[in-house]
Amino acid sequence: MLKEVPANSQVLIGLSDVVKTYQTGAGGVTVLKDIALRINKGEFVAVVGPSGSGKSTLLNMLTGIDRPTSGEIHIAGEAVHKLSENQLARWRGRNIGVIFQFFQLLPTLTIIENVMLPMDFCNVYKRSERRKKALSLLEQVGIADQAHKLPSTLSGGQQQRAAIARALANNPPILVGDEPTGNLDTGTADEVFTLFEGLVKQGKTLLIVTHDRSLSARMERTLYLLDGRIDRDHSNGNGHKN
Questions:
Q1: How many domains are contained in the chain?
Q2: Is residue 65 a contact partner of residue 227, using CB atoms and an 8 Å limit?
Q3: Global pTM value
Q4: Of the chain's two ends, which shows fewer C-beta atoms within 10 Å, N or C?
Q5: How many CB atoms lie within 10 A of CB 239?
């Protein structure tokens, strides 16, 4: 069991005795079992494990997409498990950037409009500044020249870069990705991963679910999930683990 994380701690994410049980017609199915975890600011963490081990459910706990059945989740001093649905939506929009395997860009909006969406939703930055901010993020990920195109006209790698820019729109301290390179060829996946490494150097905290062992080995730390538990918590020697 872990105590509550102080707001001024280097620990950005703290989970204490987190359990998640889903009710089905056949009864309860427990997907996460007594998860206790600390992640520091600026860490680059891989989440790996076999299908059904609880990887995506763990990310859903961290992002507030789903709630624990029991246990506590503290992120940047906020007791996330206690927030109402409306509070969660606002909190998520400002603190978490989510990157999906299949991009999830809105097809009828241009790339720059997709990047501006989180700013509009959370009312971040002055309205007159949002387009300039979005363009700056697209420059950061190397596709500013695609800003006014629709997603369908871009390659998979370009769409994922746009999705990363969107995840960065409100300057969140945490980025999470559920197989964000899983739909890309090896070369493009490496380019996207290099972008992630640059974000960590800028001080972002990244948690990435991946089945690619060569990519997980490049991260500082690997969490191995098995049957809903953290089976191993391993430092890869690329940084520090606390």
A1: 1
A2: no
A3: 0.85
A4: N
A5: 15
